[in-house]
Every structure is written in C-alpha cells, then in structure tokens.
Amino acid sequence: MSTTSPPVRAPREVNSTLVFVASYAWRLLVVAAVAVGALWLLGRLWVIVLALAIAILLTRVLEPVAKKLVDRGARRGLAAGGTLVGFLVVIFGAAALIIPVIVDEVDELGPTLSTAVDDVEDWLVEDSPFNVSRQDLDDLRVDASAAFGNSVRASSDSIASGALAALEGVLGIFLSLITAFFMLKDGPRFQSWVLGRVSGDRRELTRRMSARSWTTLGGYLKGAAILGVVEGVIIGVTLTLVGAKLALPVALLTFASAFVPILGAITAGAVATLVALATAGFVPALIVVSVAIVVQQLDNDLLAPVIYGKALQLHPLVILFAVVAGGALFGIAGTLMAVPVTAVVLNALAEARLVRSEGSSPVSAASDEDQNSS
Which of 87, 175, 223, 242 could form a disulfide with 284 if both were Cys (CB 3.0 to 4.6 A apart)? Predict the structure, then answer.
C-alpha cells in the first residue's frame, strides 16, 4: 500500500515594499546611533566646541584687518597680535563708555517690564473681549517661569554648575582668544595642511567648499551687524521721541537680537513695546509696536536680501527650526550658533553640487600649494 507525501509549500515571498523599507531601516538606525553619539560627544566637549566656534567667528571678523597689516609689510605674528589687542581695546573702551551710562537704566528694566506685564494682564482680565480669568494668567506665568528655569538649568548643566561653570567660562574665553590668534597667524598654513591631506581628485572641491563657507560666515556676521545697527537706532530713536525711558538699553538689546533671526526680533520688539507701555503709556506703545513691525518688514523684504546676498538664502522656516533645535540641544549658545552653522553647511553643500554640475577638473597638489602660498 503506497502512501503519498503531502505537497511541500513553497516559501512565501516577502513583499518587495517591506524588503525595501527594511533594507533602509537598519541603515537609518545606524545613522541615528552615530548622530546621537556625536551629540553626546559635543555635549561632553561643549566648552571646547564653543571656544572653537567663538574663535572662528572672531577670526572671520578680524581677518580683513590682519590681512591689510600683512599686505603693508607686517609679520603675520605681529599683525595677528596687534589686531587681537586692538579689538580688545575697542571692546573694553566701548564698554567703559557705555556701561556707566546704562547701568542705572538697566536696574529699572526688570521692574519696568514687570509693571508693563501687570498692565497687560489687567487689560486682558478687565477690559479685553477675551474670556480670560486671573487664575488662567497666573497659571500661564507659573508655567512660563518653570519652562524658562528648566531651559536655563539645561544650558548650565551642559557645561557645569556654580563656580565650575564660571571657571570654565573664563578658560573658554581665554582659549578662544588664543585660538583666534593662531588662526589669524597661521591660517594659510592650516589651509595648506588640510588640503595636502585631501586626495587629489577632491582637493578642488574641498577648497571651493571651504571658500564658500568662509564667505558665507562673513556675509552673515556683516549682515546681522548692519541690520542690528539699523533696527537698534530706529527703535531707540522711536522710544526717545514718544517719551519712553530706557531707550539705550533697548536699542542695545535690539542690536544683539539681530544675531538670532526671527525669535530675536520678536523678543526685542516685545520688550520695546512693554517698556513704552510702562514708561510712556498706551498710545506710545502702539507707536513703538507699529514702528517695530514696519522696520522688521522693511528689513526682511528690502534690506536683508541686499545685505546678506547669497550668504543667507534660507527660508524663514529653516531659520526658525534651526534656532529652536539649537536652543533645545545646546541652550542659549546653540540658539546663537544655529543660523550661521546652518547657513555654512547648506552653502557648502550647494557649492559641492555646483562643482559636480560644472564637471570641474581637479587641480594638482602643486598648483594648490602654489596658490595658497601666494
């Protein structure tokens, strides 16, 4: 009696879409692990990273001055040292002139803002068309204070706390100045050393990407400074004309806020409006907020494209998300560094795409070294 074996089922094929997704999923997991590790390492070495970032910014600001001294016959070491010392003299001299003038007004800034916030709360509860209770505003204030405190603690914890943070801050500034000096003095040698360790077929690409990044960083710093001066002068003059106090501190705050696009402008405009409300009244506050809005629109639509040029061709959403992400990851310093880092990276990638599209031929190591030495 013969028996027949049951038919063997062929293995079921895995859906091709699932195979495609799985093939990329594990790669994405590896990339995510590397990114998390890099962020952890940045957090552990944040003092050094921040000092290096500040040194790069200082070098970009002072390089034209040092280069002019070298062109006039000064040795590179003397030109770098003289430029750095001159910069410190200007900074401390300006601080010595400005700080005594504004120190008394700055003491009034906190109580003035608090009084203005109280006035706004009274209007919201008593006269506004919105259904807002005093308890709702108290809860909002508590939540905002807690969120701000957590942000400050997170920024402090990423470096250190207490006296150690102050010591690391001093060491970081000293390290930034020393690093900036050597960057000014030996910048061309650093460039030649780096290019010499890049393979010949990628040397021209690396050179052009670094040049584009350097130009982008300079354009950002120059543009932010110019826009900050324009906005600060206009807001300060407006506060003075409407009879408000604290014009100089608010003008300086407006200038500094220009280095944090979008969020900085909103913060500076809110502070100027609250100061006008508390020290001059409701109508002057309306004038100040109107001027702030007009100035921001003129800067964004007219001045910024001309001043920044190709240095900061970023969509406002990209800028906003970069600032928020930088603050969430690295605190206040991350907020300040987010936009220039994003602009440099995106412009470097754009230059790489341009080089590939042009099909530019690589140059030899000897020609690169001759160009750098010249």
Answer: 242
Spatial contact of 137 and 124, defined as CB atoms under 8 Å apart: yes
CB 252 within 8 A of CB 371: no
**Single-letter residue type at 345:** V
Span 339-374, pLDDT tens digits: 888 888 888 888 888 888 876 444 444 444 444 444
Q: Return left, alpha or beta for 141; rule: phi > 0 is left, psi -120 to 50 is alpha, else beta.
A: alpha
CA–CA distances in Å: residue 171 to residues 44, 165, 202, 257? 16, 10, 37, 26
List the chain domain ranges: 44-117+142-197, 199-358
39-78: pLDDT as tens digits:
888 878 878 888 898 899 999 999 999 999 999 988 989 9
Burial of 176 (C-beta count, 10 Å sphere; 0-12/13-18/19+): buried
Q: Which residue has the tokens 């050597």?
A: 182
Task: Report the alpha-carbon distance of residue 92 to residue 90 in Å, rounded.
Answer: 6
Q: DSSP class of residue 260?
A: S
Contact between 292 and 272 under an 8 Å Cβ cutoff? The reply is: yes
Token output for 346 = 């995106």
